[in-house]
């Protein structure tokens, strides 16, 4: 596993998020830690190809991330899901677009069956987080990006999440304000430095 960020510059509006930022991750499990508002989510979204770089490069396994997007998936509140369709329809769209199997095991793991008929707009924060996680895990990408994955989850869902993480064969980069549980699970802690 190799994720390399060289001279990353990233702005949002007038705010500079990163300026000539360098980071190299070489383990299977990393947890990015920093205070709220310091760029954790922006960094994950940039790695996933959802935010444009203002400068620099990001490489996954030696390839620019722009050329390997099919190998990367993200679960993040920063990724806006269409609110007008049901959770089931959104899962079906992802299933069709990525030619995947129906994620019944993930639906069962997160006790999400009752929410399938709800529109995304009507999901609680915890159920929206479950949907984000199902969408990301169902792709089984080589690089899985998880932005505050345990926030808003009830205890059974958190236990399911940790089981999925422990069993996951690929690389996981998580971001968290409270990284202690990730460190206990064997994640290498990476402190993002503020500008």
Explain what this protein looks like in three dimensions.
This protein has one domain (3-191): 3-Layer(aba) Sandwich (Rossmann fold), CATH 3.40.50. The protein has helices at 40-47, 87-98, 104-109, 125-138, 155-167, 180-184; strands spanning 3-12, 15-25, 29-33, 55-60, 63-64, 72-75, 143-147, 171-176, 188-191. It has a 5-stranded parallel β-sheet, with helices on both faces. The chain has a 4-stranded antiparallel β-sheet with strand order 2-1-4-5, with no helix packed on it. The mean pLDDT is 95. Helix 2 runs parallel beside helix 4 (125-138). It is globular and about 45 Å long. With 195 residues, the chain is α/β, with parallel strands linked by helices. It contains 6 helices and 9 strands, in the order βββαβββαααβαβαβ.
Strand order of the largest sheet: 6-7-8-3-9
The CATH topology comes to: Rossmann fold
Instruction: Write the H/E string, N to C.
Output: EEEHEEEHHHEHEHE
- Main beta-sheet annotation: 5 strands, parallel
Residue ranges: pLDDT <50 for 5 or more in a row?
none
**Whole-number count of domains:** 1
Distance between the termini: 27 Å
CATH superfamily label: P-loop containing nucleotide triphosphate hydrolases
Counting helices, strands and paired strands, the structural category is alpha/beta
């Amino acid at each position: 596993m190799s994720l390399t960020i060289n001279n990353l510059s990233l702005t949002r509006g007038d705010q500079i998020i990163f300026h000539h930022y360098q980071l190299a991750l070489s383990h299977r499990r990393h947890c990015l830690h920093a205070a709220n508002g310091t760029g954790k989510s922006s960094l994950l979204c940039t790695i996933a190809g959802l935010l444009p770089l203002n400068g620099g490069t990001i490489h996954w396994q030696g390839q620019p991330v722009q050329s390997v997007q099919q190998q990367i998936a993200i679960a993040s509140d920063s990724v806006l899901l269409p609110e007008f369709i049901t959770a089931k329809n959104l899962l079906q769209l992802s299933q069709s677009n990525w030619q995947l199997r129906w994620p019944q095991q993930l639906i069962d793991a997160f006790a999400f069956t009752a929410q399938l008929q709800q529109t995304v707009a009507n999901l609680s924060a915890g159920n929206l987080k479950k949907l984000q996680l199902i969408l990301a895990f169902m792709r089984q990408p080589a690089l899985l990006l998880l932005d505050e994955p345990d926030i808003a989850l009830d205890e059974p869902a958190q236990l399911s999440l940790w089981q999925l993480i422990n069993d996951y064969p690929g690389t996981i980069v998580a971001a968290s304000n409270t990284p202690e549980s990730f460190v206990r699970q064997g994640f290498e802690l990476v402190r993002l430095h503020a500008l």
